[in-house]
Amino acid sequence: MRILLVRDRFTPTSPPEVAASTLLLSQLVRQATEAGHSMRELVPNVTDTDKGPHQFRAAMRLRLDAEVSDYDPQVIHVQGVGLLGHLALETGVPYLILTFGEELAASLAGSTVRADAQQAIENAGRIVVDTPQAREQILTAFGEIDTIIVADRLAEFSSSPEAAEGSGDAGGPSLDWLWAMYCEIVARRRRSPGRDAGE
């Protein structure tokens, strides 16, 4: 499976919840490689993050379009909601959004980001959150969304990154459940009305 991972740029001074995301994503890339999947990452350039919101969006749109054209991913994994989720929606490629509660709260702070998040969440193949509270945040902000999954396994990454690094058979928690979601999203897209039977 070809998976395009789209995420924000993390820095050494990022807040603690970002450590959970960083650990999860490093495990994801490692396990994808070990399982024979192909995975690419798209991260904003440092120069992109220094731009205003409109210039940042335009720069990321161009880079994401080029990546989709070149790599032809079967699914996009978006880390966080908001702008990046909305850009994934615009590609037409099936996508999954995974977010930790703290990331979600930050994403819902601005009105422009909130409008992007609304559309991204409504159209995602799956939205994966770490706690029931994060699920409630989404339902309160956007109404009934039936694609939200609370993945208790994410607690392995957010409660103790050190413990998560050492757990599991291959040096970290298994992410087989995430691969199953990717496959489900791709299969659902293939069965959706208006798609060619041969796809």
List keywords for this structure.
199 residues, alpha/beta, six-stranded parallel β-sheet, 10 helices, disordered C terminus
How is this structure best described in words?
The protein is 54% helix and 14% strand. The protein is of the alpha/beta class and 199 residues long. It has a 6-stranded parallel beta sheet with strand order 2-1-3-4-5-6, sandwiched between helices. Strand 3, helix 4 and strand 4 form a beta-alpha-beta unit. Helix 3 runs parallel beside helix 4, helix 4 (83-91) crosses helix 6 (111-123) and helix 5 (101-107) packs parallel to helix 7. Mean pLDDT is 78; it is low at 159-170 and 195-199.
Proportion of residues in extended strands: 5-15%
Q: Give the helix/strand class.
A: alpha/beta
Largest sheet: 6 strands, parallel
What is the β-strand count? Answer: 6
Overall pLDDT level: 78
Number of H- or I-type helical stretches: 10
Task: Give the low-confidence spans.
Answer: 159-170, 195-199
Taken from the alpha-carbon principal axes, the silhouette is: globular
| Major β-sheet strand ordering | 2-1-3-4-5-6
Radius of gyration: 16 Å
Task: State the distance separating the first and last CA atoms.
Answer: 15 Å
Helicity range: 40-55%
Order of helices and strands: EHEHHEHEHHEHEHHH
